[in-house]
Amino acid sequence: MTPERAAKIGSDFDLRRLPPDFLANPYPVYAWLRQHDPVRAMPDGTWFLTRHADLVAVYRDAATFSSDKHIEFAPKYGTESPLYEHHTTSLVFNDPPLHTRVRQLIMGALTRRAIAAIRSTRSATC
Hints:
Number of helices: 8
Strand content: under 5%
Largest sheet: 2 strands, antiparallel
Radius of gyration: 19 Å
Helix content: 55-70%
Structural class: mainly alpha
Number of strands: 2
Strand order of the largest sheet: 1-2
Shape: extended
Number of domains: 2
């Protein structure tokens, strides 16, 4: 991808409208965004961050940047729907301390050794 093409994609960047050449090699666009628009407002009202320091700051500040979906999804799905339950109990939609507790419980299952053991077991049974 040429620098000019990366600049064009970066200046029009929208996660919901990604061209095939971005998908083939996104790194020149990420570099352009980091240099020119590192905290980009997306058309849908979300934000796209490309600098490590910004991502770490957001990750560490759950009070400001919460993953909790109770308020957002109650009107959309109703509090009794399976989607509401999923979006309010799933690990990715929870903040510390619940997120931290659940992550610690499952970390042993996500090691390279554990995944390799699962793969070898699956290969043997297929």
